[in-house]
Design brief:
about 180 residues, alpha/beta, 5-stranded mixed beta sheet, 3-stranded antiparallel beta sheet, 8 strands, globular
Length: about 180
C-alpha cells in the first residue's frame, strides 16, 4: 500500500490499513473537527494487523521554507497526536450509520490495537546554514515529545527520509 502526502511517498506492507486522517473527506474533518477550534490531526494513521500496532505519522517539509509558526514544534505535534487519538476513538464509537470507511477502519483499529507509535518525519535543507535551516534539534525534539505524549507513546520517533531507520517495516521517501 502506497500513500503520497506532503511530498513524501510512504510504502506500507500490503496487509496494513493506512489512510490520510486529516483530509477533507475523512471522518476527522467532516465530523470531529467541528467540535472545537484548532482541533488537529496527524497526516497518516496506519495499522499493522500482525503486530497489532497503530502508527500516528506526521510529515513536515522544511527543506524549502522555514517554519514560521510561533508555537513550539513539540507542542504542535503533541496536540496533533492527542487530538488524533481522540478522533479515532470517537470514530470507533460513533452511532453514525453511513458507510464511512474511516468509521469501519477506526472500529477495527480501536478493538485490535495493543500499542501506539508516534513518528514525526521532518525534512530539512540538505545543507543547512545559520541563515537557512530550521534549527530543529532532533534529540531535543524527541525528549520534549516523550514528555508530552508519554501516555500515547513513551518512545516517539523523530526521523527524516534521508536517514530512515531499518527497524521500521515501512518506508518513506521524498518525492
Amino acid at each position: 500500500m502506497t500513500l503520497e502526502k506532503d511530498g513524501v511517498r510512504l510504502t506500507f506492507p500490503e496487509d496494513w490499513d493506512a489512510r490520510e486522517w486529516d483530509t477533507s473527506n475523512s471522518f476527522h474533518s467532516r465530523h470531529v473537527k467541528r467540535t472545537r477550534n484548532n482541533l488537529r490531526s496527524v497526516d497518516i494513521v496506519a495499522f499493522d494487523p500482525i503486530s497489532k500496532e497503530l502508527w500516528l505519522i506526521e510529515i513536515k517539509d522544511y527543506s524549502h521554507h522555514k517554519r514560521t509558526d510561533p508555537t513550539p514544534l513539540q507542542d504542535t505535534l503533541a496536540e496533533k497526536a492527542i487530538d488524533t487519538m481522540g478522533s479515532v476513538h470517537v470514530a470507533a464509537r460513533t452511532g453514525l450509520t453511513d458507510a464511512h470507511p474511516d468509521v469501519f477502519a477506526a472500529r477495527s483499529i480501536v478493538a485490535l490495537s495493543e500499542r501506539v507509535h508516534f513518528v514525526y518525519i521532518g525534512m530539512e535543507p540538505a545543507n543547512p546554514t545559520k541563515l537557512w535551516g530550521t534549527g530543529i534539534n532532533t534529540i531535543d525534539l524527541r525528549i520534549a515529545l516523550r514528555q508530552r505524549i508519554r501516555c500515547i507513546d513513551a518512545h516517539p520517533l523523530v526521523v527524516d527520509t534521508a536517514h530512515w531507520p531499518r527497524e521500521l517495516q515501512w518506508t518513506a521517501e521524498k518525492l
